[in-house]
Amino acid sequence: MSALFRGMVIGVTVAAAAGAGLWAGQTGLVKLPMPATAALLGAAQTKGPVIYYRDPDGKPLYSLTPKTNNSGRPYVAVHAGEDVSFDAPEPGSAAAAAEPAQGQRKIIHYRNPMGLPDVSPVPKKDSMGMDYIPVYEGESEDGDTVKVSPGKIQRTGVKTEPVRKRAVVRDIRAPGVVTLDERLISVIALRFDGYLEKVADVTTGTHVKAGEPLMTIYAPDLLNSGARLVIEEQTGWRPTTGTKRLSQDASTLRAPVVGARRRLENMGLPRDYIDNIERTREVPDTVVWRAPRDGIVLERTAVEGMRAQAGDVLFRIADHSVMWVMADVAEGDIGALKPGQPVKVTARAHPGRVFTGTISVVYPHLTKETRTVPVRIELPNPDLALLPDMYADVDIETGTGEPVVAVPESAVIDSGMRQVVILDRGDGRFEPRDVKLGRKGNGYVEVTSGLQDGESVVVNGNFLIDAESNLQAALKGLTAAPEKEAHQ
After folding, report:
1. Residue 379 falls within a domain, yes or no?
2. Gap between the Cα atoms of 210 and 323, Å rounded
3. Residues pairing with 313 in the sheet
4. Do the bridges between strand 133-136 and strand 194-199 make them parallel or antiparallel, or are there none, so unpaired?
5. Do 449 and 467 have their domain in common?
6. Distance between CA 377 and CA 367 in Å, rounded?
7. Which of 370, 398, 426 is the last residue of a domain?
8. d(Cα 173, Cα 323) in Å, to the nearest integer?
């Protein structure tokens, strides 16, 4: 027998054996192992058209067109008959019985990697070449709850934190300028015409005490009013609104409404000067003018020998024991301020030193150029360390200090129209929850409604879970529409 004839006989024999084995396996006469049956089926059935190409080295790389890898090896064509089937196995079939035993999850569909509402029953790539992401059975749940696999939670760094009651305190910082307390400024001006015979050695910047002599004044009006006071004291006459006889034989005179003592008081003369005239019945020709309060001389216009008219400002004295700080607070922080709140102030001239005071006035107007509101802070200055026009840094602590339900600011997803937190339900299940927010401070925000003490919220990675929830809601809407059309 020739070699050619022997080869043909062997080939026919092998083909016949393979066909018999395939027929026996399909009809159940012979129980073949699953790999052998699959191999025989793959060899017997037509592969169909090429749907994509995969990497020859088994890497998760795919292409819609023929190409080569970095080593120069061509991608392997994957035909329609070789691709994975996503159809549900028939009940009672071998595939349905083998799937739970293998512990593999069923792939429902593939979703767009960019979060677009686009699904595919087979693996594919988007316009940018990114692979669609498989969605397994059990990853989505009904209602608002979304389920995320443990691997994805670990990769994205999702962190949760229990909700606790805590004091939400926030420090408001603002720049300020030191100014004088306008209630502690005294202006020395005469209410009569006079001459300055002598001016004390007091200049601008000098610190004076209350009662300290400032100048000596001569004024004819003082002599006239003083002489009238002496006459009234000697005769026992007192002015009234009507008429009064000075004696039995004297003629009737119309008395002025204001008497001499009242005139001297209206001229601003000190009480001891007037009492001295009444007691001694003598009128001095000059009067010593004294400082009305402790303070620093801000202005001096008095000069010896000058003629001072009524209303001329001769001295301006300010008390520096209490100072104001005018702070410019941002418009968004004004709602947390009120009079009486404690304030800490630091001045650049005294680094490391903290001055304590309180808010006295929150001005009822806004500076439109800077969108700030002036706030007046009053603080003691016993050692005169603070001077007018100094720059200062203001630190205002806001908050009542009472514990309230609060979450970290990173736990809140704020879209402008609504505020949402992601609740951790356990076992990879998460639920979005609308909340109402209150005060903020120290990295936390008060939750006035929507959460309870003890619940757990996501503080890191919540945007991923929110995207998963929105995507699954969109996918459910897409899948519900075809089902509704099919029923119709």
Report:
1. yes
2. 19
3. 189
4. unpaired
5. yes
6. 18
7. 398
8. 19
> Of the candidates 171, 163, 164, 165, which has an alpha carbon nearest to the alpha carbon of residue 399?
171
CATH number at residue 266: 2.40.50.100
Cα separation, 374 vs 362, in Å, equals 7
Token reading at 423: 């609740």
Domain edge (last residue) among 291, 314, 337:
314
Element (H, E) at 419: strand 419-426
What's the gap between Cα 457 and its chain centre? 20
Q: What does the H/E/C string look like for 209-273? A: CCCCEEEEEECHHHHHHHHHHHHHHHHCCCCCCCEECCCCCCCCEECCCCCHHHHHHHCCCCHHH
Helix (H, G, I), strand (E, B) or coil at 476: helix
- Contacts from 362-370 at CB under 8 Å and sequence distance 24+? 362/334, 362/337, 362/338, 366/331, 367/328, 370/328
In whole angstroms, what is the distance from residue 347 CA to residue 250 CA?
73
Q: How many other β-carbons are positioned within 10 Å of the β-carbon of residue 335?
A: 9
Distance CA 457, CA 152 (A): 17
Identify whether the C-beta of residue 86 lies closer than 8 Å to the C-beta of residue 121. yes
User: Hey, what are 266's tokens?
Assistant: 């209206």
Cβ count near 390 (within 10 Å): 17
One domain for residues 478 and 367: no
Could you tell me if residue 107 is inside a domain?
no
Q: How many independent structural domains does the chain possess?
A: 4
Cα–Cα distance, 275 to 282 (Å, whole number): 11
Angle at 36 between CA 34 and CA 37, to 5 degrees: 65
pLDDT in tens, the chain (488 residues): 444 445 444 444 434 444 444 444 444 444 444 444 444 444 434 456 777 788 888 776 778 788 888 888 898 887 765 644 444 444 444 444 444 444 466 787 787 776 566 778 888 888 778 888 777 765 554 456 777 777 777 777 788 888 888 888 888 999 999 999 999 999 999 999 999 999 999 999 999 999 999 999 999 988 888 888 888 877 766 655 444 444 444 444 444 445 788 888 888 888 888 888 888 888 888 999 999 999 999 999 999 999 999 999 999 999 999 999 999 999 988 888 999 999 999 998 898 999 999 999 999 999 999 999 999 999 999 999 999 999 999 999 887 778 888 888 888 888 778 888 888 887 777 888 889 998 887 788 889 888 888 888 888 877 777 666 665 555 555 554 444 444 45
Alpha carbons 186 and 188: distance in angstroms, whole number: 7
The count of residues in the chain is 488
Compute the Cα dihedral for 62, 53, 73, 129 and give only its sign. Answer: negative
